[in-house]
Specification:
CATH topology: Arc Repressor Mutant, subunit A
Shape: globular
CATH class: Mainly Alpha
Distance between the termini: 11 Å
CATH architecture: Orthogonal Bundle
Helix content: 25-40%
Strand order of the largest sheet: 1-2
Strand content: 15-25%
Structural class: alpha+beta
Order of helices and strands: EEHHHEE
Low-confidence stretches: 83-94
Number of domains: 1
Number of helices: 3
Mean pLDDT: 79
Number of strands: 4
Length: 101
């Protein structure tokens, strides 16, 4: 069975020639982490688009969807060394696998 990518996640791309392969909004050099940081800092979507006119509301929704999917599929592994520490690793075959439907 072929998996279908979430249409919003098609607005995110990885290109090793752009920001050293960081996730960016498709067709821009605007990293997904920047969009998420601005939202976390209290910026609303209109303010982000005003600051970065290359973005659309769908790009911001795609960043949120991507983050939600990554967290949904997060796997946690326990490591017990000198101190009891729980390490959390994002388990994904590649950076966009969280967007697979």
């Amino acid at each position: 069975m072929k998996t279908v990518r979430d249409p919003l996640c098609q607005r995110i791309e990885v290109n090793p020639d752009i920001l050293m392969g960081k996730l960016v909004s498709a067709g821009t050099r605007i990293p997904v982490y920047l969009i998420l940081n601005l939202l976390a800092a209290g910026y609303d979507q209109d303010r982000i688009i005003q600051a970065y006119p290359g973005l659309a509301h769908e790009d911001i929704q795609a960043a949120l969807r991507y983050a939600e999917q990554r967290m949904r599929h997060e796997k946690v592994y326990s490591y017990h060394g000198d101190a009891s520490v729980t390490l959390s690793f994002l388990a994904a075959e590649n950076a966009l696998s969280a967007c697979e439907a």
